[in-house]
Amino acid sequence: PTLMLFPTIWLSPAKWLWTTSIAQSLVIALASLSWLKWSSETGWSSSNLYLATDPLSTPLLVLTCWLLPLMILASQNHLSPEPLNRQRAYISLLVSLQTFLLLAFGATEIIMFYIMFEATLLPTLIIITRWGNQTERLNAGTYFLFYTLAGSLPLLVALLLMQNDNGTLSMFTLQYTQPLHLLTWGDKLWWAACLLAFLVKMPLYGVHLWLPKAHVEAPIAGSMILAAVLLKLGGYGMMRMMVMLDPLTKELAYP
Which of 214, 33, 35, 242 is nearest to 140 (CA)? Predict the structure, then answer.
């Protein structure tokens, strides 16, 4: 249903653009409340091997769906003086960002989660750099881009090594494997590589300098999505990875 918003955005008459976009996204948000009922029980609720919901991801999925109509509503007066194509492009970026977030929170394959985790960077970067209100928006976009990419590359290497060792990156099966047993320096580096991308996204103090710049320079919808969902991706990713890093995490926490 989210993808059906793109024809609505680009084919609606100019005077109905914002109204139809808000109405359709609100219908999707109301429909998303049914996920809360499906995931009320413990465990995964899945219709296929690649997308599923559980009690951890379902509230974030519902929050993502409800955020889109609120972002469109908050941006309507601010963007109405702009050319029509820029208005359509702006709403399309918000819809694509919601799509990537839904796929990230619903993914059961870690590599798919990683791809969607990184894909959210592109629409957010365009929103900040093209629709930011201040002259420093390009600098803020550069900080946001390089901090996030630099933190996520070690995670990609760790995921490729995990795929090579275990033969799978499915969350259904990896939680039952115990890949780490020894507290060697290699294990510690592997543990840090798995969590660094999420610590930058949260963000951890010391790698947080991109966040105040991004919040200040972003338009209102950009700040809404940053505060409401994108920062929660960091905590969500850590919770998913901690299950697979459990033996080493316990030994690091309680030596």
Answer: 214
Question: pLDDT tens-digit profile of 9-67?
Answer: 998 898 899 999 999 999 999 999 988 876 655 567 766 777 888 888 999 999 999 99
**Cα–Cα distance between 65 and 77 in angstroms, integer?**
21
Rounded CA separation 131/22 (Å) = 20
Amino acid present at 123:
P
Dihedral (Cα; 43, 49, 50, 52), 10-degree rounding: -30
Domain around 161: 2-253
DSSP structure class, residue 230: I
Q: Which tokens in the block code for residue 220?
A: 């209102």
The structural domain count of the chain equals 1
Collapsing DSSP states into helix, strand and coil, what is residue 51? strand
* Tokens matching residue 137: 């928006």
